[in-house]
Write a structure and sequence with these properties.
Rossmann fold, 6-stranded mixed β-sheet, 10 helices, OB fold (Dihydrolipoamide Acetyltransferase, E2P), 3 domains, binds S-adenosylmethionine, globular, 8-stranded mixed β-sheet, single chain, about 25% helix, alpha/beta
């Protein structure tokens, strides 16, 4: 990372400092003050007394890493993973899982207050997992053959630099992959192209895991046979990706169809391993249920589903409404969404590809009029779309978000400028042990 290069020039204070931790930052670090300057302390929890050493010094804040916990929080637990603290994948394993989601709820409420200047009438109970382990179905694993280690490293990047973590298993990845990191490392170590595999993209569907090997050169027949034997032994799908996303092709078996079902709505989806899909299937199902419940649809209503991806919400919405229009920026995902509607025999939907940061009123589908809106934007949120959405006059809007700060900003616009009331909001434990916060809010037109 470029940033790391810049940081290296700054001389770090060598002393070990003792502090009390006053809060939890939005990226899961303890917050303390030293000589009036904020220090984000990795591995520390609110209420704790800890010793830390400096790992980064900046003009307005510093970063430290816990070296001793003097007075532990009651929320502190033993991290399950051997490389917790080093690996960039997780940042909250040292906190009880229930307390993590409570902390995320506080982060959401704090964002509403500070950024959006809004409050919800009701904060609903968080949606949680049956187990907070082995949930992650999408990931990009780095791969590097490291001479000094005598092996190929397969894993997430380290927290503070771009090295691949020397890890043997991952506790949050779906076990079909999380328990096989060593096997993957051994496999790649035996390939002629052992230093020409840049990454492995993981996508787990309802049946099994798919691994997309990003091969920087064409693999020899022998290497391909080794990958095929691996796929057979571990019951996995393997794809190769020699170039950009369009170059992804199935290696074993020759035809691969990935799919997941939403049994509550009697629909299922097919997708490609590089498509956007939600990482946590259990929370995804609960989230769709909650969104549809909150929209309170009837069969006469027309619904707009913005940032619809492959139609994850759209088809479920279509089972409850008269007509649903799904809009998404990626042509590829729109194509997939259309195929999914046909495959499910659902005829009351239409999909359009559009950039939702542009003038929506200019778009042909816009003039249809909609009773209710669901939106699930990427991290940037939907600032540009909010005034248009508000003009539609929909009676209910459900906003699903993976970034509480942009949700808060957009909620502020809906409530303070466009006459909506934020009736309910809550967090969903989509990404346990990481600092990511997934949330949902319901807005009703006043
Ligand atoms: C968080 S995903 C949600 C996808 C879908 N709702 C789901 O549940 O799987 C956000 C989606 O927004 C799309 N997107 C991002 N920026 C966009 C833009 N400016 N216009 C339209 N779509 C955009 C992405 O391609 C992605 O599919």
């Amino acid at each position: 990372m470029g940033k790391r290069g810049r940081r290296r020039h700054k001389k770090l204070p060598e002393e070990i400092v003792e502090v009390s931790i006053e809060g939890l930052s939005h990226d899961g670090r303890g917050v303390a003050r030293v000589d009036e300057k904020t220090v984000f302390v990795e591995g520390a929890l609110p209420g704790e007394r800890v010793k830390f050493n400096y790992v980064e010094v900046n003009r307005s804040y510093d970063v430290g890493k816990v070296c001793e916990v003097l007075d532990p929080s009651v929320d502190r637990v033993e991290p399950k993973c051997a490389v917790f603290g080093l690996c960039g994948g997780c940042s909250l394993q040292h906190m009880d899982a229930q307390k993590q989601i409570e902390a995320k709820q506080r982060i959401l409420l704090d964002n509403f207050e500070r950024i959006g200047k809004v409050a919800a009438d009701e904060i609903v109970t968080p949606l949680v997992n049956e187990s907070p382990w082995g949930y992650r179905r999408k990931a990009r694993l780095g791969v590097r053959s490291v001479k000094g280690k005598g092996r190929v490293l397969v894993g997430f990047r380290e927290k503070r630099n771009s090295f691949i973590t020397d890890m043997h298993r991952c506790e949050v990845l779906h076990p079909s992959v999380g328990e096989r990191l060593d096997a993957l490392s051994e496999l790649i170590g035996t390939l002629e192209a052992h230093n020409r595999i840049a990454q492995i993209e993981v996508a787990v569907d309802d049946e099994k895991a798919s691994l997309v090997f990003r091969n920087l050169e064409t693999l020899s027949d022998e290497d391909q046979q080794k990958l095929i034997a691996f796929a057979q032994k571990y019951d996995l799908h393997i794809f190769l990706q020699p170039k950009g996303p369009d170059s992804v092709t199935a290696l074993w078996p020759e035809e691969i169809i990935l799919s997941y079902a939403l049994p509550e709505f009697g629909v299922s989806y097919q997708f490609q391993p590089t498509d956007f899909t939600q990482v946590n299937s259990d929370i995804n199902q609960q989230m769709i249920s909650r969104a549809i419940d909150w929209l309170d649809l009837d069969q006469s209503e027309r619904v707009l589903d913005l940032f619809c991806g492959i139609g994850n919400f759209t088809l479920a919405l279509a089972t409850k409404a008269k007509w649903v229009v799904g809009v998404e920026g990626s042509e590829t995902l729109v194509e997939r969404a259309r195929e999914n509607a046909v495959r499910n025999g659902i005829e009351n939907v239409e999909y359009h590809a559009a950039d939702l940061s542009k003038e929506l009123e200019q778009m042909a589908w816009w003039s249809q009029g909609f009773d209710k809106v669901l939106l699930d934007p990427a991290r940037d949120g939907a600032q540009e779309a909010i005034p248009y959405i508000a003009k539609l006059g929909a009676s209910k809007i459900v906003y699903v978000s993976c970034n509480p700060s942009t949700l808060a900003r957009d909620a502020g616009l809906l409530v303070n400028e466009h006459g909506y009331k934020m009736v309910k909001a809550g967090v969903m434990d989509m990404f346990p042990h990481t600092a990511h916060v997934e949330s949902i809010a319901l807005f009703i037109k006043q």
